[in-house]
Every structure is written in structure tokens, then in C-alpha cells.
Write a structure and sequence with these properties.
alpha+beta, Jelly Rolls, Arc Repressor Mutant, subunit A, six-stranded antiparallel beta sheet, four-stranded antiparallel beta sheet, 10 strands, about 45% helix, about 20% strand
């Protein structure tokens, strides 16, 4: 079990969510949830918005920002495209992992021996904290950045390995290939809508896996990932499940669920899967759909209200997920239940 200090921020977040939800008014027709479990989502409480220098630098150039999302303290995703632009990233106070999604063949990186290219789909670059790098984008390039603060990376290492290194030196990489990075990006980060809050648990889980992979393979530590055996204790599992079901209307992140279990995100995700046979984000999505089905059958709420109550940002996303899992749309189920 980890020391309480490792979970202080997440613990404060959870406490305040308890406090504010107790004062919040729910929809009149929705089931009443226990005040000790029903919590409200307050972005200002969860994390102070961090400024990522690499992100701000791109905004001052020709790069076009297509989407971005904050995933708790110290992690941010941003989807960009660029063309005919020269960009220099100077001494950022955070780390950047970049994956080329499309094109990039005419993107050049400045080296001691001159400009060289090597970009293309699924090539990745690591730009460590305090690194200086210059780029000449001569043709189309689509890419996704994952920004990670040094504090978050250290916190992840302390939680996952239960050791505190003297320092973490992330290695610079340019136009490299790594099947695991590509898999995590394309299967999780690029396959979902970032602004859809029901996806944030999956996004935060994938981001944690990516950063753990970087620590294992691209730092001076080279620590093997810990072996996780067994599932969660029944009391802990019940506590987490009660919290999830009481907060399905809210965005959930891996860090807050792990804090409830007093475990690192890495250990929690694996132990939860051992216990439930599915990843936390899969369990939560299934719980959202089950609640949606119950409300469609038993309540007078319209489909939009049900979507929000189940944690979806839009009716369309709720309908698409529901049909993919249940074979019919929410409207069709409602019509069936009225017959």
C-alpha cells in the first residue's frame, strides 16, 4: 500500500466532490443517491490548468489545433496539423511525446550535421524537459502531442515502482518507431472523441500506460514494470464500485479511482481487471449503458436527460454507444417499453 502523501491531491479532490454534491440538486425524477457517495465534478478542484510551453509555441505559428483535453494534473493531449512552418521549441518545463498520425515525410529536424527528415505515419518523437529542438515542416503533417509535467512523471514513478529516483532523464528520440506507442495511440487516444466526458477514463488510462512505457524504455532507469498478482480486496472493490455507480453522471479519471483503493494507477488498473475481468474504463462504460437502459424503461426522462445522467456529453454519443452494445437505439428501446 502506498503512503498517504502520494494520494493527497486525489484525496482532497474526492473530499471536495463529496462536499459539493451534498449541496447540489439532482433531477427531480432521478433516483436519490446517498450523499456519502454522490459527488460532483468540479474541474477547478481537480486540477489547476497548467500552461504547456510546447503547446503555446505551436499556437504562435502556423499549426492548426484540432482538439485538446486536460486529463487531470500534469497531462494534456493535443491534436495538430501543420504545413510550411519552422518551429523551435526552447527549454520547455515539461515533456512531450509526439506521434505522427498522417503524412510528415517532408518534416525535417535540425541536427549538428544539418537538417534531416525521416518522418511518416506512426513515427514518434520524444522532446524532454529543457530540450531545444527545431523543426522545418515543408509539407502536410498531422500529429498528436501528449504533454506531461515533470512532477506528474515523478509521481507516476513513485506510485508505480514505490521508489523515488534521484532524477528522471527522459531520452530524446526523433522519427523513431515503437509498436507499443503506436498501439496505445491508435487504439485508445485516436479512436475516441476527446470532448466526450465518458471517454476520459479510457484516455487517462491509456496516457498512464504510455508514460509508464516511456519510463521503462526511454529513461536512464530502465526499471521493469512491476508484476501484479491477484485482484482487489472485496471491501476495496465494493468501495470503488459504489463510487462509480454513484457518479456515473460525472467524468471519471483513473487517478481518482486508484486513490479510493490507495493504489497506484498502474496497480489499480491491473488489479481491478483481475477482479472484474475487464478494464476500469470498460466496466464504467458498461455501467453507464445499464443505467441508461434502466432509465429508458422506468423513467419519464427524455433521451437527452438520460444521456447526461449517464455521463455522456451528447445524445448522439450515447445513442451510438448504446446501439453498438445493445443492437438498438435508445429511442427504439423506449418505444418497445411503451408497448
Amino acid at each position: 500500500m502506498l503512503r498517504p502523501r502520494l494520494h493527497r491531491a486525489a484525496g482532497v479532490c474526492i473530499f471536495l466532490r463529496f462536499f459539493f454534491r451534498a449541496k447540489a440538486q439532482k433531477l427531480a425524477s432521478a433516483p436519490v443517491k446517498p450523499l456519502h457517495l454522490a459527488l460532483s465534478f468540479i474541474p477547478m478542484v481537480r486540477t489547476m490548468a497548467k500552461v504547456y510551453q510546447a503547446f503555446e509555441t505551436l499556437r504562435k505559428h502556423h499549426a492548426v489545433l484540432h482538439d485538446s483535453v486536460e486529463l487531470g494534473s500534469g497531462i494534456k493531449l493535443a491534436a495538430w496539423s501543420n504545413k510550411n512552418d519552422c518551429v523551435t521549441q526552447e527549454n520547455p518545463d515539461h515533456h512531450t511525446l509526439s506521434l505522427y498520425v498522417a503524412d510528415g515525410y517532408e518534416t525535417y529536424h535540425k541536427t549538428r550535421s544539418g537538417w534531416r527528415n525521416g518522418g511518416g505515419p506512426d513515427r514518434f518523437c520524444i522532446m524532454p524537459k529543457n530540450n531545444v529542438s527545431s523543426w522545418d515542416v515543408r509539407d502536410d503533417l498531422s500529429f498528436v502531442h501528449l504533454y506531461c509535467s515533470d512532477e506528474h512523471l515523478l509521481h507516476l514513478v513513485e506510485q508505480t515502482w514505490e521508489r523515488t529516483p534521484a532524477s528522471i532523464q527522459l531520452e530524446e528520440r526523433t522519427f523513431a518507431e515503437d509498436p507499443q506507442i503506436t498501439l496505445l495511440y491508435r487504439q485508445f487516444l485516436l479512436s475516441s472523441q476527446w470532448q466526450e466526458r465518458s471517454n476520459h477514463l479510457m484516455l487517462s488510462s491509456a496516457s498512464t500506460l504510455l508514460m509508464a512505457h516511456l519510463v521503462k524504455n526511454y529513461t536512464q532507469l530502465q526499471w521493469a514494470l512491476p508484476t501484479v498478482r491477484g485482484g482487489l480486496a472485496p471491501a476495496v472493490l465494493n468501495r470503488v464500485k459504489e463510487y462509480i455507480h454513484a457518479n456515473l453522471s460525472q467524468p471519471l479519471l483513473l487517478a481518482e479511482l486508484a486513490a479510493l483503493a490507495e493504489l497506484s494507477e498502474f496497480h489499480f488498473a491491473r488489479m481491478f481487471k483481475q477482479s472484474m475481468g475487464m478494464a476500469p474504463h470498460q466496466y464504467v462504460m458498461n455501467a453507464r449503458l445499464i443505467q441508461g437502459e434502466n432509465l429508458l424503461r422506468s423513467s419519464a426522462l427524455d433521451v437527452t436527460a438520460i444521456a447526461l445522467e449517464c455521463g455522456f456529453s451528447s445524445t448522439s454519443h450515447f445513442s451510438n454507444r448504446f446501439k453498438a452494445m445493445r443492437g438498438i437505439t435508445p429511442t427504439e428501446l423506449r418505444q418497445q417499453s411503451l408497448r
